[in-house]
Design brief:
Helix content: 40-55%
Shape: elongated
CATH topology of the largest domain: Beta-Lactamase
Domain Winged helix-turn-helix transcription repressor HrcA DNA-binding: 11-78
Radius of gyration: 25 Å
Strand content: 15-25%
Protein name: Heat-inducible transcription repressor HrcA
Domain Heat-inducible transcription repressor HrcA C-terminal: 115-336
CATH superfamily of the largest domain: GAF domain
Strand order of the largest sheet: 7-3-10-9-8
Structural class: alpha+beta
Distance between the termini: 39 Å
Pfam families: HrcA (PF01628), WHD_HrcA (PF03444)
Function: Negative regulator of class I heat shock genes (grpE-dnaK-dnaJ and groELS operons). Prevents heat-shock induction of these operons.
CATH architecture of the largest domain: 2-Layer Sandwich
CATH class of the largest domain: Alpha Beta
Length: 354
């Protein structure tokens, strides 16, 4: 980030304006921007040859790229990141966009899942992109836990809450787990529950592990020293994800290659690959965050961008996130305030229910 800031600070006014107009032109049209186009738009009158020299310098710095033999340029991922961090002008939330979101989410009746499904539909409709909504986990005290094996690499945990709420979550069990070992694990956890929430149960489990860690260390040290054993730690905590607006990404006039990348993106989403880390993207501070292309491993193959913001409950605890997926040439200045407003609205609706 600091290196990009240094590069931006070192650009003179002409180079900075050329760079900004190339990026803005690309985000608007999706097409390379040429020197002749810029000669008509720049605030100072300079020749096309001068602009071409500036664009070559920007390409040398890794900020622009030439996709074809034409003279037009497009921003690189590094260039887009520098533009978003240093030159992006975030617009005020458009009143019509706000009204559409408010109208869709105005009804706070029904369960949280239905409300968040409407959030996804609203975001997708307003932005013409694909929306992501990470639903909060139910944190009522647990009455009973059950593990159900669905195959060698697929299982489901059934959580029965003290308030009568029942929640099913799919997960990938560690290798070697059998239906009988899952029953034993459920029996062990049920003996510890005693009205605890899932997070409280996790705290108890960590305490149990810490109590026995010294004993385990003593017993296992010899085996480890002899190379007969080794520690292994593999955790997985998949989140529920709501995806809306798939057709929006598949109907944007993009090339067949782009469509193949987008289909790859949705294949990843539907298999819930890397979803466990989705909330962590937004859990590093308040406000909207922007991930471009390979900056987010979930979208590294598709080259898509993600604009995401966390939402909080009444205790100011981050419990979920909302976001919009689109091509790298998203209208970031318009999307950012929409995502920010929707996240704040969802947080308020969640807080009003508690």
């Amino acid at each position: 980030m600091s290196q990009q800031s240094d590069i931006l600070n070192e650009l003179n006014d002409r180079s900075r304006e050329v760079f900004r107009r190339v990026v803005e032109g690309y985000l608007e049209s999706g097409e390379p921007v040429g020197s002749r186009t810029l000669t008509r738009e720049l605030s100072e009158k300079v020749s096309a040859a001068t602009i071409r020299n500036v664009m070559q310098d920007l390409e040398y710095l890794g900020l622009l790229d030439s996709p074809h033999v034409s003279a037009g340029r497009v921003p690189t991922q590094q260039g887009l990141r520098m533009f978003v961090d240093g030159l992006l002008e975030v617009q005020d939330l458009d009143q019509s966009d706000q009204q559409k979101i408010d109208a869709t989410l105005g009804d706070n009746a029904g369960d949280v899942g239905a409300m968040l499904d409407r959030v996804g539909s609203a975001l997708s409709g307003v932005t013409r992109g694909a929306s992501l909504v990470l639903a909060p986990k139910h944190e009522a005290p647990i009455r009973h836990i059950e593990f159900v094996s669905l195959g060698h690499d697929r299982a489901m945990v059934v959580l029965v809450m003290a308030d009568g709420h029942v929640e099913n979550r799919l997960f990938t069990p560690p290798p070697g787990q059998t239906p009988s070992s899952m029953r034993e694990a459920a029996n062990f956890l049920n003996a510890l529950i005693e009205g605890k929430t899932l997070s409280e149960l996790q705290t108890v489990m960590r305490g149990e592990i810490e109590k026995r860690q010294q004993e385990i260390d003593v017993l296992s040290r010899t085996l480890i020293d002899q190379g007969l054993a080794a520690w292994a730690d593999d955790g997985d905590s998949p989140e529920r994800l709501i995806v809306r607006g798939r057709s929006n990404l598949l109907d944007t006039g993009q090339s067949e290659g782009d469509l193949d990348l987008i289909r790859t993106l949705f294949d990843d989403l539907e298999r819930k690959r890397d979803i466990a880390g989705f909330l962590e993207l937004a859990d590093q501070g308040e406000g909207v965050r922007i991930f471009i292309g390979s900056e987010n491993k979930l979208f590294s193959l598709s080259g898509s961008s993600l604009v995401v913001s966390p939402y909080m409950n009444a205790d100011r605890k981050i419990v979920g996130a909302v976001g919009v997926i689109g091509p790298k040439r998203l209208n970031y200045g318009r999307i950012v305030p929409i995502v920010d407003y929707t996240a704040q609205l969802v947080g308020k609706l969640i807080s009003d229910r508690t």
